[in-house]
Amino acid sequence: KPTASHPPALPRHRHRELSVDYYSKKCPQLESLVGSVTSQRFKEAPVSAPATIRLFFHDCFVEGCDGSILIETKKGGKKLAEREAVENKELREEGFESITKAKALVESHCPSRVSCSDILAIAARDFIHLAGGPYYQVKKGRWDGKISTATNVPPNIPRSNSTVDQLIKLFASKGLTVEDLVVLSGSHTIGFAHCKSFVDRLYDFKGTKRPDLNLNTRLLKELRMYCPSSGRSSRATLPLDATTPFAFDNGYYRGLGSNMGLLGSDQALFLDPRTKPIAVEMARDKQRFLKAFGDAMDKMGSIGVKRGRKHGEIRKDCRFFL
Ligand code: HEM
Ligand SMILES: [Ca+2]
Ligand SMILES: [Ca+2]
Prior knowledge:
The chain is mainly alpha-helical. It has helices at residues 30-44, 48-60, 93-109, 116-130, 164-173, 178-185, 199-203, 217-226, 251-257, 264-269, 276-284, 286-300, and strands at 144-145, 192-194, 237-239, 312-313. It has a two-stranded antiparallel sheet. The chain has a two-stranded antiparallel ribbon with strand order 2-3. The longest helix is centred in the N-terminal third of the chain and has 17 residues, at 93-109. The protein is globular, with a radius of gyration of 20 Å. One calcium ion binds next to helix 9. It holds the Pfam family peroxidase. Belongs to the peroxidase family. Ascorbate peroxidase subfamily. Residues 17-322 form the Plant heme peroxidase family profile domain.
């Protein structure tokens, strides 16, 4: 029985816990409303899938999954919102548009009842599934945050030249394990990157004036054609998973096995003894990857969740605070 020295084993933040049926009374049609928008958008503009998944990642890692990434800087305002940070400059418009459309439809049925952060979590899951990835239940009950500041972004978003050590530390600071790091990086099985995100590997790796030796020589030749050494400003984008950039499969990990990782941070996962065994396992077993990915997204979607009026709000327009 509970005593002062043995308190009951209740979670300390039960009020912050998310649940699958959170909107069963407040907005029972929520998932089908969001689903109608995501399936439509996937047909019209398939890049909405990688765009929205990355948007969710960049939301959760800065101030938690609270829709802070969706806020627009006020016209003439001095304080820049997260969106304005360099780390967020390449977030595609298609992701923001998908959330704006879904929110508008949800507002017309369930006004002021559903947070933007929950809509983003559902839309990301939908797009993963539409692209061939796992379908997992999304837990809901997030409130939208009241803070969005560009200077909060750099310390919380990993860079394409981050070391495995830095990646492990950053993910650990969000409550994510080494396995979560490797599995969530599997998102790079779809989507594209600009030349500037990997051009150093093509011409001047770590100041050596030589390309990265851990880059497949055939891929290197091809990448150099699209990205000249002055490629920092090029608008060209290349697939993160050279084999199947639109299919949510384990092609990304199989690519790492033949030195085809596009970003330094991707290939590094296959070089470090702490992460390589996990990547090898994901390359070997597609079903295992898909299941692990759904579980890891659930964990990522719970980072820094807010509840209640002190720290949160339910926005009407995801781009502006109430
Ligand atoms: C592990 C550390 C990570 C690093 C260093 C990283 C870095 C990057 C970079 C540099 C790009 C290309 C940006 C550009 O040049 O346009 C990118 C794209 C992308 N990232 Fe990551 N990322 C990481 C983890 C993740 C995670 C955890 C997710 C999601 C759960 C994710 C989802 C995506 C997606 C879907 C794209 C493609 C976006 C598009 O095509 O619009 N990334 N990432
Ligand atoms: Ca956020
Ligand atoms: Ca793929």
